[in-house]
Amino acid sequence: MSGSQDQLEIKFRLTDGSDIGPINYPVATSVATLKENIIAQWPKEKDNCPLTVKDIKLISAGRILENAKTVGECRSPLCDVPGGVTTMHVVVVQQLQEKEKKLTSDDHKKNRCVCVIL
């Protein structure tokens, strides 16, 4: 590979439609490193800031990207235009897990069974 083929220009689309980037990354960059950069560059005014790499799912070309894969391995020949910007969608899963925990604990409170012996 040479020059521009060694790098991929990526922008990260957040759920509210705003973007982080575009930023050039070497094709050898891991997905976990991309997620770390997203956390570091997360807009301060946004409430749902992810805290760890596990709080983020990156989606590109309809696929959820695995942390151990590299940008080059995740590239889709159908969607990536040479010299173009690749858009990856960012989903923060932290809030989903917190909501599920809250629902579970609330459900236990509502579904109490009381036995009365007469």
Automatic annotation (TrEMBL):
Gene3D superfamilies: Phosphatidylinositol 3-kinase Catalytic Subunit, Chain A, domain 1. SUPFAM superfamilies: Ubiquitin-like. The keyword Cell membrane applies. Its main location: membrane. One of its GO terms (cellular component) is plasma membrane. It is a lipid-anchor. Keywords: Cell membrane, Lipoprotein, Membrane, Methylation, Palmitate, Prenylation. It is found in: Cell membrane. Pfam families: Rad60-SLD_2. Residues 8-74 form the Ubiquitin-like domain. The keyword Translocase does not apply. May serve as docking site to facilitate the association of other proteins to the plasma membrane. This is Membrane-anchored ubiquitin-fold protein. It comes from Erythranthe guttata.
